[in-house]
Amino acid sequence: MKIEARSLSFSVRGKTLLQDVSLAVQPGETLALVGPNGSGKSTLMRLLSGLAKPSQGDVLLADQPLARLTRREIAQRIAIVEQQADTAERITARSVVELGRTPWLSALKPWSGEDTQHVDKALRTVEMEEFAPREWSTLSGGERQRLHIARALAQRPGLLLLDEPTNHLDIHHQLSILNCIRNLKVTTVVALHDLNQALTCDRVAVLSHGRLVALGAPAQALAPETVSEFFGIKARWARDAAGDAPFLSFQLA
Amino acid sequence: MSAAAALAWQGARGACLALPVLAAAVLAGTMIGETSLAPDLVLSVLANKLAGAGLPVDPVDQGIIWSYRLPRALVAGACGAALAVAGVVLQALLRNALADPYILGISAGASTGAVAVTIAGLGGGALSLSFGAFNGALLAFGFVAILARAAGAGGSRAAAAQIVLAGIAGSQLFNALTAFIIAKSANADQARGIMFWLMGNLSGVRWPDVWLAVPLAIAGWMICRFHARALDAFTFGSDSAASLGIPVRRVQLVLIFATALTTAVMVSIVGSIGFVGLVIPHAARFLVGPGHRRLMPVAALTGAVFLIAADIVSRIIIPGQVLPIGVVTALIGAPSFAVILVRGQRTAR
Ligand SMILES: Nc1ncnc2c1ncn2[C@@H]1O[C@H](COP(=O)(O)OP(=O)(O)OP(=O)(O)O)[C@@H](O)[C@H]1O
Ligand SMILES: [Mg+2]
What we know:
The complex is a heterodimer. By secondary structure, chain A is an alpha/beta fold. Chain A has helices at 41-48, 71-75, 93-98, 113-125, 141-154, 171-183, 195-198, 218-221, 224-231, and strands at residues 3-12, 15-25, 30-34, 56-61, 64-65, 78-81, 159-163, 187-191, 203-208, 211-216, 233-238, 247-252. Chain A has 2 domains: 1-77 and 157-219, Rossmann fold, CATH 3.40.50.300; 87-156, no CATH class. In chain A, 30% of the residues lie in helices and 28% in strands. In chain A, a hairpin with a 2-residue loop joins strand 1 (3-12) and strand 2 (15-25). In chain A, helix 4 (113-125) packs across helix 5. By secondary structure, chain B is mostly helical. The structure holds adenosine-5'-triphosphate and magnesium ion (MG). Adenosine-5'-triphosphate is lined by residues 12, 15, 17, 35, 37-43, 83 of chain A. Chain A: Part of the ABC transporter complex HmuTUV involved in hemin import. Responsible for energy coupling to the transport system. Chain A: It comes from Leisingera daeponensis.
């Protein structure tokens, strides 16, 4: 499902958090969103998901203005995993993932076997089947994050918005979740801090101080000069002995 | 079609489980009292009144059962169920374990309205205490709602906290008004009477109260039950609920107004009975977990049975005297809740 941002701006109480951001993500594409802390990644995610309304500009989902869809219609198309979401409820891991089916259920369309299948599949994708009966408060940070991702997958969205989905994960699960996301046919926008992981996505967008400063193929958008300038460090291409694809290496400037 | 049938089947099955328990509780409520009456006597009275059976029954007994105890038990049940469900809904919506039906200023406003009518003499004696209490409750709730709105509860992020804070401010204000009126113009007897009413009092309940409380409790329950899945979606906050397709503002508005209105009516009939709306939801959560489709019926049933039982105890525990029911709910409720808390903790391991 295609999503397009047309000169989005967002400000709260006179402070501009995002200014004139335009980008389009094609169906099936995975776009990485990178930028320093406070550059506006989460804000852009909230605008794309309709959780916040832009001060100026429009979001188009499959060429339709997002503002014209109801919350339920949006939720049947877009799933978002926010940076932090916690609860004090004594809810089980499985029921967290079951929440993802909410937009597809109604009084006349109660829970069915199909919903159970989607939940099972999502739990399998994030390798959390054995944790299904466990209580939320007993899970580790990474396990909780994987459940949030599973919840989003169970939503069966056409567009997946992930805000730093790998920040609590061990290296195995970082790679396996990213791999799974890239292989999904779903259009995905993923905010990342690991620039080398961003390199493996289809395209990369760089945000700085609320502006879109680079957008394009990974090697081009994350050219060492760009990275050095916007992150305030010294970056260069490096290669290891195995001589595969080059990766970025960093040093304090 | 089959979906609708499944739904009807679910509802019917639930009713089949709940109704006998409720009926037994109401029967106990009519049998037990200062003079104990046999169950067959109660059933004969019911047969006479409902089906015109014309069975021979002592008219005094018939009067006690039909005009006093039965309406009292029915209102206690309706009130317990409504308060418990309101507590479940507000705790979920405001994401606050300490939320109860009175958190929106309703009980404080009701007491101000009650003392304004009975002590300050508002309306020159033409207005009843319940009328004053109901309007006071609505006034306080209106104040809280406007304050919450002005404090930015519209924007979703910190909305829940803003509503709770506005409720606290409103409660404080109206409690101070109540204290002011009592200090300024009440004599000791009046003050004691108001104290009694504030702790909950079912002795004035008659049939017209039943016709108000029972349908309202059922309507409130249906509105809340219809939103069970939406309440589940609030587990991770209102943003997460919105991203799951819940129209957050509308659901908040509908549910808050529904619970406020039901609570205001209940308070105006029986006074502000504490504890039920706060603790029954937690007790029910320990029993069946946090999913609202099971939690809501269990809380309603537990609340109804609990309040009917508390009313029985309040009538018989001190011979010749009726205790305020709020005292009983807290005295029985607190220890039993302590037991549930401790056992719940153990089974969680
Ligand atoms: N409600 C608000 N009021 C004022 N400033 C805000 C508000 N919300 C966010 N900001 C500011 O907007 C900027 C962008 O925030 P955002 O959360 O989008 O950053 P981010 O790129 O996701 O950062 P991070 O990498 O730390 O997650 C930050 O400087 C933040 O302090
Ligand atoms: Mg962020």
